[in-house]
Amino acid sequence: MKSIGLIGGMSWESTALYYQIINREVARRLGGLHSARLHLQSLDFQQVVARQQSGAWAELSGMLASAGQALQHSGADCVLIGTNTMHRVAPEVQAQLQVPLLHIADATAAAIKAAGCRRVALLGTRYTMEQPFYTEHLARHGIACLVPEEAERAEVHRIIFDELCQGHCLESSRQTLKAIIAGLAAQGAEGAILGCTELPLLLQAADVALPLFDTTRLHALAAVDFALGDYPQAA
For this structure, is 108 an active site residue? Predict the structure, then answer.
């Protein structure tokens, strides 16, 4: 079994989901008491958010590259950045590593194409919805994204940072997200990306009519695929 390296803490709420999904999937595939070989570098999210807000992306690139190198030096065979937003600096981080960085949008794109979708709604932080790094990455896979209007983007961003990253899951916010996705479906979205790793804390597939692409789960499962690629699995 190969070792998975996870850069987490962005927020720790979703990092806990990664840990749970990865270990449960390893146990499901291998049986018995198997669990993942996993290395974690958990950052102080307040420091990350302050740099996001000030636009200090070069500093963030350095922070994540250092975390990735620490994971590599500890024996990780791959690295994951456990957040969609910070994939804005994924190319710079990968350039500082000798092991592969498994990109969250690649895992998401594979699931979208497998579902036969080509035009999808994208919900996430304002950085993910408004900056081109994420939509352009998906466009290279032949996938077009629809994003909410400005006021809705602001509300999704607020729900993520003021509620979900602090462990608060409100029914009113669930209904808000459902309404936003329904509006994008009316504009032609064939599926919806939960493009923030905290959003699955609030929204599940049963909540919406469209196929829902949970980036946290898809990224975690891609890591398990990598770790167990050559490992004998239970029948």
Answer: no
